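FYI - complex with zinc ion, inputs then prediction.
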Amino acid sequence: MEEMEDVWRRLKLNDEEESSIEIQQDVVGLTKLKGERSLVGKVISDRKIGRDIVRSMMEKMWKVGKPLEFHDIGSNCFVISFVNRRDKVRVLDGCPWLFDNHLFVLKDFDGESQPSQFDFDHACLWMQMLNLPLSYMNKKMGEVIGRSVGEVMEVDVQEDGVAWGRCLRVKVDCDLRRPLARGRTIVVEGRSSWVPFQYEKLPRICFNCGRIIHEKDGCKEREGNSS
Ligand SMILES: [Zn+2]
């Protein structure tokens, strides 16, 4: 899609092409209504994935009573319509989702941007921060450490803000083009310690560089040289 845009930029438009068509808002009407119970999504995979396979698998995983509507809008990109808005919100809240171990990045319906502008390079992942001192297992700590990875969307704590348990769960909006964070070093009262991360529903990542998405020309790390 980007390549097409490059071609565009080089094009010299003739008068007819350049004179713009004013679009009235009443053009969108019904489409917008349907958008309210729809999502856009992309399966992150180098291989082309068939729409019907994704649809039938996700219908089971999402436990929707009525069939979903899936339309291709790009390479492994779909617009997905649910029978009602409630189902859509439930699925969106349940992110991340995997299709055959590939991350299925979902975003709320956006009817105004061009599909080439959709941001499928970021997605929310649930991180588990392990081995934290008990006094630091709380909302604030989750936010502080989580922020070093990406935007913190949620910290799983009790009503009093405390989260004692096996781990501290934090939902972070991650940049999938960067190597997945494996942990962070924290310093508590002068003593530094390593806090390892685990991910819930971890998708397939590159074994060389730890990324979920590569740039156009593929993996740049040499084998065994991970950083
Ligand atoms: Zn790689």
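The longest helix spans residues 51-62. DSSP finds six helices and ten strands in the chain.
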